[in-house]
Amino acid sequence: MLRFILRRLLVMIPTLIVVSMLIFVVINLPPGDFLSNQIAELRATGQEAGLAKAEFLRHEYALDRPLPEQYLIWIGVWPGPSGFNGLLQGDLGWSFEFGKPVAEVVGETLWFTVILNFSAVLFVYLVSFPLGALAAIRANSWVDYLAAIVGYIGLATPNFLLALILLYYGQRWLGLPIGGLMDPRYENEPMSWAKVGSVLHHLIVPTIVIGLSGTAAMVRRLRANLLDELGKPYVVTAKAKGVPPVRRLTRYPLRMALNPFVSDIGSLLPSLVSGSVLISVVLSLPTIGPALLEALRAQDQFLAGFILMFISLLVLVGMLISDILLALLDPRIRLSKRKRS
Amino acid sequence: MSRAWKHQFDPEPWSPDDDAGPASRLDPGASAGRLMLRRFLRHRLAVLAALFLGLSYLSLPFVDFLAPYGANERDVEHLYAPPQPIHLFHEGRFVGPFVYPTAGRADLREYRWRYETDATRPMPLGFFCPGAPYRFLGLVETRLRLVCPPEGATLHLLGTDRLGRDILSRLAIGAQLSLTVGLLGIAVSFGIGVTLGGMAGYFGGRTDYAVQRLSEILKSLPELPLWLALSAAVPAHWSPVAVFLCISVILGLLDWPGLARAVRSRFLALREEDFVMAAELMGASPARIIGRHLLPNFASHLLASATLSIPAMILGETALSFLGLGLRPPATSWGVMLNDAQNLTAVETYPWVSAPMIPVILVVLSFNFLGDGLRDALDPYHDS
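Predict the joint structure of the above. Result:
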């Protein structure tokens, strides 16, 4: 098992390298950078005083060097103007837009992003498992149709609109709070149960909205898998031998159907994380979503680059966890991998 | 089972034909295409979706004629006007389709617009009458429209937005961009996917490895943030058409891994088939084998998976435009329109501004049903 995890971690390294290159290219696609735009603006308005500072920053952050070199400095395998200080050394760079280090800008929002996505994944599991199983056992009953309808709504509604609508009606009918991640009065308070409760309360709407389309996909998937299993001869045999219904279901068919259920979460993660970025902007949640949008608009490249890296890392780690879970659940996967290598 | 039982109690002599089982199809000679069509027609929802989508796409060139107003035609007297019904009877008497005129006033206490209907003066609608000028198919300048508001009244069937533009007209005109963005995007992703997947499947070895890893990595990246980053790179001073093309390419650029994988696995599976070997032995060139023997075998399969990935692009366009990084205002698309519905005031006070979500939902659902139906129909010899 340990070897499996180790190998899985090793595979992540080249992936991360390619991802970081891709992100660097994407970030540098727009012509110019934040500082060169600023310098042009300062020149145009004749503010010579700011020029020197901008030029200094440009040199300080190596923006005057060729792109491949900038990339190497950014990830921290090439000495920049002040030695090795890139992502690998834990230096996330400087946010020009906010005028402070990237680490300070993103700060706490990283945790909220992780919490939000974690709760969305949890929601997907907790809702789609019973719903999918029920839809399969009671195929073509009202539960099944209800699950299908909810699924189609989740699939087809643009989730940002769903967020607004749920937020409005949630507020109106259920008194759910609007926007933010906690009650303002807990903002600078130390951790307490009341604060946790407030955060959980605020998480309800975003979690549902982010998780809904994923839940829809998972319900369909689980239903199809379970229906396949339930039609197999061993289930008929069990029935003929008089195994009680619940035991007949949980003993083997459910376990078999669970497998793709776990592995699917990996392919679901990218869209979940995408959704969380969008929803955070709409509901003004303090995750890195709004900061990303701001950074992209202003060409604040270190900030945007780090956020994109972080989001990708989040997905990759999620996939790693789902792979490990799958290997724990199903010995066949561990063994087949070992045989191949 | 009943057939097997029959002979235990049936005095009739047994004939081997009885055990042949029911004819698996009514007409064994029907072509594959015919069987697919028949199977597809059995899928009610898919047929309905196909009809709806066909109608929508066919009407795209004529939306200017169908819409009562122009996309950017402003009516400053009717800002945020609510939807207006069409009536047929006035005081129990049949008049034909008509509307009542409305007049707006600013409610300064609640700070919103209020509209009052004058139910005493029915005003019949005009048909095939001159409206705001437009260029039919972008060529002929004309003013002819299917239906126009009566003189001195308005025809806002779905209300108006912040600037007093007719929402129904904008919906129709926005469909041109919103519906084609998915098609263009899928064309891009199809091109990349089939080329790379085909190369991986046909050449194998290192090419295969590289394509596989690249598609795995792309699949594991969250799409929306990358779409955002890419569309932020589209220069702000470009014309709406250039921006539109760019956005479609961006949408397609990240979507190909799924297709490439499907193409590759099909290639690998089919390469081992006897008919490919036969073609090879008869001296067919690789191009002929691919084009004549391999592609037709899974073209239909690809069509189904392409249909299923169009909705993601349509939703992607809406999301990008909604965030202000996709299509930009002089252009009209459903996402651009939804940009106006961004705040809670819109949901609460002027809910009709969110109307574009209805066509978005319908189109996305239709593509899903159509794709499902196609996928089921494409396997005509497999009984489910």
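Chain A has 15 helices and two strands.
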